[in-house]
Amino acid sequence: MFEKYIISLINKSEKKLDKLILKNCPPNLSLSRTKIQDLIRRKMVLDYRKHNMLTLKTKTDDLEQIILCLDKHPEGDLIPEDLNVPIIFEDNSLVVFNKPANMVVHPVKSSQCGTLVNFLIHKYQDTLPKIYDKFRPGIVHRLDKDTSGLIVVAKTEVCANSLIAQFKSRHVKKFYLALCKGNPLENLSKIVSKPGVNIVKDNCIEVKTYIRRNKNNREIMETNTDNGKIAISRFSVQTVYELGKNKKLSLVGCEIETGRTHQIRVHAKLIGCPIFGDTLYKLGRKEDFIMEKTILSSFKLTRLRQMLHAHELSFAHPKSGQRIFLRGELSPDFLNLLSNLEKYKTSR
Question: What is the pTM for the complete model shown?
Fold first, then answer.
């Protein structure tokens, strides 16, 4: 089942079809360029006048209106679930959770279960603002499925609009903890030779690049020197673990000024220290594979996920204007791994 939307192409500043549609789409459709490209490839975009299917190579000079066919979401309400999601802070305007790892933030269809939104429906019923669509009540930002840590949810529309504006203007301060392979401070000369990487005060490594989707695999993000969205991360090494035979792990703090998809994971890989357990952004080094296998076996772990945690969050309260600072404890699996690594800690 499809729903049809007629889009008037009033803003003609873009020539490529996907960009042109994105420029003219109403915000309530919440379409990304990737989604639009997918719709075009699936022959779900038509010329309104001629009713012929459009392609990514279609010339757009004479296009005035298009028909966009979107998959119709299945009817029915989201499934409420009583899940264990610790609350760090809550008042009448917002709530901040310490999201566990292996939890998706929002579902893409009514039948999906186990997400943060399923818990929100259980706890708050139908009271949260639907800023984008019914699948994201109160959601103003997100974390990857396997990233644990702090996530703020708006309880009113006024709060949602304020938080969205703060995220967009970079007034929300976000600090993460990551367990990374290697020690970036040992390879500073090699790291700073890469475009966009600099050393700032106290041996902090600043990475400032553009990030975009990989053209061959749309699930993967990549750095680029001049195309994509600007992404700024600052890494600081807090603890180094020497496992022997030149195998090291580092507990790294990361402050991000922007919030691009997979930003920390992409930048950690760029500086040669990908996040431990991250299967998507690894360097393919034989020694990394051996180290992961050894740790799994030695510490009796059954599964690894990317060891990344949204540790601290700071923003202006939408109602009072007062600055709020929050910190979320590391998840049990992260704490357990660090506890096992304690005997390998060095003084750097």
Answer: 0.78
